[in-house]
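hey so u asked for the seq, here:
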Amino acid sequence: MRILLALAAVLLATATSQAQQSRNLIVTPDPDVERLLDLFAEVSEAEEEVEGWRVQILATTDRQQLERTEADFKSTYPSVPIDWVHNSPYYKLRAGAFFTRPEADGLRQRLSREFEGVYLVKDEVTEAELLKMY
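ran it, structure tokens below
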């Protein structure tokens, strides 16, 4: 009986020791994997823009026409972000920021009643602009 109790005590001590060791397990990542994960995190944080959609309202060579149309749009649709780009010789006025084409198409349909030649363009949009639209 004493041998059985001694054997049980040894088994219990061994099991307790292994349990304590497993709690203090230290994992050392491979240096190449760690560098790759750091690079991925750096690129992800730096990338503020994502591929999305906008509605192009106007393409003109006349800067004053662009500014008038922009002012009219802002007074009618104050919650919709609007911006313009200059690809010489054209000024392009674009509204909205959408993640998918069908979402942008809803705005395009509304705006086509007021503006002539409205169409969708694929563009880089910021995450902040996307949040404003939703």
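The longest helix spans residues 2-23. The mean pLDDT is 82.
lmk if thats what u needed
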